[in-house]
Amino acid sequence: MKERILEEAGRLFATRGYAGTTVQAVADAVGLAKPSVIYWYPTKKALQDAVVDQVLLEWRQTLPRVLDAASSGADRLDNVLGEVVWFFSQAPDRARLLTRVVVDDPTELRDRLQGHLRPWLALLAAYVREGQQAGRVRADVDPEAWVIEVVILLISSFAAAEVAAGVLGGDPDSARERLVGELVRMIKRSLHPEPEGGTP
Amino acid sequence: MKERILEEAGRLFATRGYAGTTVQAVADAVGLAKPSVIYWYPTKKALQDAVVDQVLLEWRQTLPRVLDAASSGADRLDNVLGEVVWFFSQAPDRARLLTRVVVDDPTELRDRLQGHLRPWLALLAAYVREGQQAGRVRADVDPEAWVIEVVILLISSFAAAEVAAGVLGGDPDSARERLVGELVRMIKRSLHPEPEGGTP
DNA sequence: CCTACCGATCGGTAGG
DNA sequence: CCTACCGATCGGTAGG
Predict the structure, then answer these.
(1) Neighbour count for residue B142 (Cβ, 10 Å)
(2) Is the dihedral of CA B116, B119, B123, B126 positive or negative?
(3) Helix (H) / strand (E) containing A122
(4) Is any Cβ of chain A less than 8 angstroms from the Cβ of B174?
(5) CATH code assigned to A48-191
(6) Residue of A182, A185, A191 to mutate for B, most B C-beta atoms under 10 A
(7) How far is the C-alpha of B60 from the C-alpha of B63, rounded, in Å?
(8) Where are the domains of chain A?
(9) Percent of residues, chain A, with pLDDT higher than 70
(10) Site from B129, B154, B156, B188 to mutate, A interface, most A CB atoms within 10 angstroms
(11) What are the pLDDT digits (tens) for A107-124?
């Protein structure tokens, strides 16, 4: 039952935000009375923490794939982006939830996110720098700033995917596809002028 | 007094969101009793609408500058980006507010935003396409998708600027500067491999 | 522009 | 896991 609650709460927090989600609404979505939700998660805050923790956990579980993608194939960046895109495409609520955490002000949650992000920032920035020394990556890239901007772009692009597809018009599915394609292209071209792999 | 209310409400809606902002909090910030706020803006919803309208109005007032920047100088894209960056740097709450409108779900607000965006999308995409025909812009760019992704990146980058600067570390001001610099570089390089202007 | 007040709903508790 | 209930606060109104 904890899982059902977590699932519905995740959906609601992602779409309506923390303040916009009532414990009663979560209870209704699951089909329980309000105190039953409070039985499993003692406060609304604890429920939100659990939801955010779950997204971070799911991300950690995706890590092996990403690291694998990062060390194989002709175009490693392309592979990594593919995994990240898959992670958010799978469940766009993840991106919406993370966007809220960043924008909703709670400094404590931000700090928790930063703790998760900082090691990644260092790792990825080192990769970029390495590429620069090898001449594969443009010299004018600011490695740390690039990584941060790419993370922002990835998360917010998926968080806004629905609206963006609406603005683009046409069939929603193909609109989403065009947007993801251009997103990936932009990120790659911002790092190096032409694909890594060269001619196959 | 309407102005004071609008100002404080804008600050609060941007930082805490619609559901997270109470009419009482707005009243306290201005130094009025709650019913006095309701006197000037008959409902909380009307107050939010006024706040969003104001941001859109300020953007329209910035338009002449942007259009001017778009038709002068060696690197027109650079000039336009400079104006947009200035618009959001001036008041980062604008970006945070727009992010919320997109993510907070109210379909009606989205539609209003889309109405504002659509003509721009067409105009900017046409510019990109024109550049492609002249060979100034890479052929693999998807003009409409590119414009949308750039708008998303610009808005969310400023909305997350504070957190991003925290992750980057060091002096907050110079961190912000690095991030904006890289943001602009990414956008430019995603369109054409080298600066438009050539050697001066 | 304020005081006084409204019904509804908030997060959470008591007790079983 | 539920019913019954708590004080606090919500958006908004009445009346001046």
Answers:
(1) 19
(2) positive
(3) helix A107-133
(4) no
(5) 1.10.357.10
(6) A182
(7) 5
(8) 48-191
(9) 96
(10) B156
(11) 777 788 888 888 889 988
